Amino acid sequence: MVSTTLKPLTTRTAVATATLHFPPSITSLLSSNSNRTSKGSITDISRYAGISASKKTSSLIPLCHQINLTDCNVTCDVIGSTCHIKCTVTAFERTGVEMEAMVGASVAALTVYDMVKGVSHEVVIGEVKLMEKKGGKRVVEDGKNVT
């Protein structure tokens, strides 16, 4: 584990995204049922799963610091045959929260997959990407290193 003892406490924020691509059978199901499957609302349940996973990142990723999150928001927007997930995480800590954002977006995407796999396994979880990171030594904007 990397020592953060001498790092200053700052507000850390990170945003990660994930994308899923649906086949026509799932697109049709979701559009005719307000984004619901037999398991419930994919937007609501993936949101809860992403938040829960973000809070448990240090238990899932070896050598990741335990972080006390001050805010976590997960959105899930279905547009046509694509599902866009965004996880935004904030903490007042000595280390970044990008892993928490990435885990939240990833688990939210896996949750959507789980909820639609009864209709088709032809779902593709696409790019999971860190879009923004600030509050520490390095800054990321629009998925690119700024400093």
UniProtKB/TrEMBL annotation:
<feature type="domain" description="Molybdopterin cofactor biosynthesis C (MoaC)">
    <location>
        <begin position="1"/>
        <end position="136"/>
    </location>
</feature>
<dbReference type="GO" id="GO:0006777">
    <property type="term" value="P:Mo-molybdopterin cofactor biosynthetic process"/>
</dbReference>
<dbReference type="InterPro" id="IPR002820">
    <property type="entry name" value="Mopterin_CF_biosynth-C_dom"/>
</dbReference>
<protein>
    <recommendedName>
        <fullName>Molybdopterin cofactor biosynthesis C (MoaC) domain-containing protein</fullName>
    </recommendedName>
</protein>
<keyword id="KW-0501">Molybdenum cofactor biosynthesis</keyword>
<dbReference type="InterPro" id="IPR036522">
    <property type="entry name" value="MoaC_sf"/>
</dbReference>
<comment type="pathway">
    <text>Cofactor biosynthesis; molybdopterin biosynthesis.</text>
</comment>
<dbReference type="Pfam" id="PF01967">
    <property type="entry name" value="MoaC"/>
</dbReference>
